[in-house]
Amino acid sequence: MAIALLPKMNNGSRLGFDISTEFEPTAESARGHRLHGIQTLLYPQELEKQLRKISGEAHTAIEETGSNMLFMIFGFLEFYDSEDSDRPMLAPLLALPVELIKGSIDPEARTYQYTVQHNGEDLTENHTLKEKLRRDFLLSIPEFDEDTDRPKSYFQMIDKAISKKRRWRVRCQLTLGMLSFGKLAIWSGLDTKKYPELVDNELIKSVFSGKVNGGGDSLHAEDYKIDEHPKGDLQFIFDADSSQHSAIIDLLAGKNLVINGPPGTGKSQTITNIIGCALAEGKKVLFVS
Q: Which residue, 244, 250, 288, 249, is CA-closest to 270?
């Protein structure tokens, strides 16, 4: 999908261009055919500057985080945090992960052309918005079914869900921008409706319950008598107290642990000692931060 041009809003109307930022979810002009361009309200040089900036930020995000943060956003919910608020909030409704590809120079404008291309990942709903509406407004909005729903029908369902909210409305706008769904991916991955097998996984049950195999073991691990323990002579990089030494003994024995403690209690030193002991035993270590 290429990005085309329109002069700025202040004089675009004088030149006979439609300067509205709202679009019809099923444009009559498309008539079922593929659209090859998006009109913008920027001159060529200004548009190229914006696209170059967005492209650079998108590539940096991938290099630093390993995940794509560039999305084509379809539709926004305009809402207010309270009845007496005069400040409208805009929240994305549907986001399609895309990449911005730099192309050849336009022979007329003498600026680089850019293409917006779907990167193959799934269309994303705004689950953060849905959770906020549920908690703060006791309002449930419908889920988007990519197999059956179209944006137009989805926006109509949301319109119906918010019909009793004064001043709330769906804005049919199309925006290219950066969104971060890192924490949302973790939250979504723990959804037992999508992944019912999670509740039967023994490792996950032990992590969240603090009990091995769902049994009656104590929530807190035992502190060993280090001087009497066969592993009491482990060689550490940093000094360790009895609770830290006990945790390392359990880990080397193959147990799965959650080590918890306030700042300054030696968690980082314990991690370092764990890695050192594992390497000393010839093991490979994958450390994720």
A: 244
